[in-house]
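Just wondering, can you check both lines?
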Amino acid sequence: MSNFFNRLTRSRDGAQRSQPNRPGCGLPSCSGPQTFWQRLHRRHAGTFLQGVFYCRPECLETALTAQLSRLHVLAPAALPPNRIPLGLLMVARGKLTYSEVLAALEAQRRARSGKIGEWIEKLGFATEQDVTSALALQWGCPVASSSDPSATETVSRIPLALLEAFHMLPLNYAPSTNTLYLAFGERVDHAVLYAIEKILDCRTQPCVAPRKTIARHLEHLRQQPRPSDVEFGPMNDFAEMSRISSSYIARLSPDEVRLSRVGRFIWLHLKVSTSATNLLFRLKTQSQSSQFLVLSSQQQHTTANAYSHGEMGTEN
């Protein structure tokens, strides 16, 4: 009998030595597994959220709900003003006349849509290359010269909805410096660059590419299957976001979860071994939230009438 307990003790000591060193749970109120057998059972359990380890699904869900609540109320970063308006910059470079800039602004005002660069091109005042060069000078970035197929893997790790919303495209990836180069066709958004750095754990460098070229690439991506992208919304219930996220985490058992607020989106990146799943929650705009409140107060309308006006469909 004593030999049996000696072997059991040696087995326990060996298991303790072979058990990977896990940090303590990041949730202060977590009691955690107490006995050796509980710790041994959970030696492979646990997930990192924003670089902090959580030992149990309950701990992770509590921390995730707190993170989503914080991001939900976080106001999107204000876009910085351009140092020099694009039209005046092109006038200074001799690519436009002042009257042409006024004509493009007037066309934009009447249409109530489009960027000033688009109207400059539509009216034939300058070429797309002229506009792209001016945008690069405006934002202090180089003009993209070519793309590299090595960035394809990284494209799949950034949700397509984000690429479309910010009119950007991963252009190249340099493994030696862990740097991802992203091309923008309109405004270079440094807030989204920062979010990508934190989510994908890399450095980012912006550049500017012709708007039509990026639009063409994005259209091509829309035709490709993207099973790793899962989008929800519009929604504003962070508790529901937490329930959805926890359900995916329980099913996929990711090693690491990272999340960030990116414009009107909350992006969760679930890393599982060498693959990843993106959960993207599209937040309601203020006008959408107001419309929902109005619809909720009009109880006299029937469901059929709501569907006939297309109102119920916009909320699903």
